[in-house]
Amino acid sequence: MYGLVDCNNFYVSCERVFNPLLKTKPVVVLSNNDGCIIARSNEAKALGIPMGAPLHLYKELINKNKVFTYSSNYTLYGDMSSRVMTSLNFFVPDIEIYSIDEAFLSLEKINGVTVLDEMVKIRKLIYQWTGIPVSIGVGPTKTLAKLANKMAKKHSSNGVYILTISKHLDKILKDLSLEDIWGISKGWANRLKSIGINNPFELQQSDPRQIRNLISVVGERIVYELRGIPCLTLEGITAKQSITVSRSFGNIINNKNDLKKALANYVARAAEKLRSQNSLCGAISVFIHTNRFRKKDLQYSNSASIIFDDLTDSTNLIIGKAFKLLESLYLPNYNYKKIGVVLLDIQKREHNFIIQDNLFTYGNTKKEFTNKSDICMKMLDSINAKMGKMTLFYGSQGIIKQRKQRTEGNNWKMRSSYRSPFYTTNWNDILRVS
């Protein structure tokens, strides 16, 4: 059996952990630059606020109903996600972190007779330890566990739902639409309907080879998974093959120095991610573009790449290369909306894996530089992990005042007018009890 644990209204739940007054109140969380609504409490959903709605179109409804509004606080959400996943690992050794608020569990070591009681216990303790409410779906395959989780949210009083191969499952599948099944897109659903398959039950009963020819091998696997035959195993955490960091600016930028500050910060974040997965990169790409929705502006979009002489994880070195690329990309008299960096040719940095040296840079000087760089990066990461992000940073990143969104020279910063404090990752934001 497999279990799927899904955090309920995750972003909203994270905000409620540190502000209990929000419980039972309508709450929405906004996307980058406070543009659209990307998370809603059940109370906000009941008011008719749709997912992805632009904030400005629902401002009147939000004000009228006193809806609490928050900017995205990904630092907080990421840390709370880590707490939930670590707690799950306490109960089940084999888990697959599927997204920031979802994880698959392998339940093969749990007695099938007591699985319901075990899942109820896990759900209760996760809430007690982290403050995050979760729903748990259980099934003989990952696809059915995903479906069971959906049923747990809608039809279970204890937040747990178990699906088995039975007549009951047949009835459930007949009442669902094809798009309700994990992995079935609207396009695939239209193809299936074109050959007379109109619901998941009919898909379950279909010829797997025909489905493979019609859509893909993924569709064939879904058929078997709906029959209770596992085709998808748990996947461990794999290192990313490329790392991208990009943001739309809070304000339009036409100043090269502001672009350099933004780029330096994005490189620093990308390099930090690179080191966190114990990897090195061999190339970098930088892209830049204007806002295509501002018809009155001149439009421009471009990108450039460069290959390093040696694999590296040095923030200092990567910032230098990124600045060279920006010099080649930047054109004056344009209003820029976004810049981004992509780290490429990523290889795992393992003790038993020998990375081939560059013939033309090999030598004692290079080794000395590499050793100093490694020490510097470890010190940088450890201090920022202990004392909070941006405790140590490079001068090229500019002086960033966390509590002021529109300070001089920081126009590139995202708009986050409604952001909550970094309760769990910044000493200055620790919750105070009066």
Query: What oligomerization state is this entry in?
Result: single chain
Q: Compute the number of helices.
A: 14
Share of residues in helices: 25-40%
What fraction strand?
Answer: 15-25%
Q: Can you give the mean pLDDT?
A: 88
CATH class of the largest domain: Alpha Beta
Q: Let me know the number of strands.
A: 13
Based on secondary structure, the structural category is alpha+beta
Domains (count): 3
The major pleated sheet works out as: 5 strands, mixed
Can you give a write-up of this model?
A hairpin with a 2-residue loop joins β5 (95-99) and β6 (102-106). With 434 residues, the protein is an alpha+beta fold. The strands form 3 sheets. The protein has a 5-stranded mixed β-sheet with strand order 5-6-1-7-8. The protein has 3 domains: 9-72, MutS, DNA mismatch repair protein, domain I; 77-226, Reverse transcriptase/Diguanylate cyclase domain (Alpha-Beta Plaits), CATH 3.30.70; 243-397, Dna Ligase, domain 1. α4 packs antiparallel against α5 (115-130), α10 runs antiparallel to α11 and α12 (256-276) runs antiparallel to α13. The model is unreliable at 402-408 (pLDDT under 50). Helix content is 39%, strand content 19%.
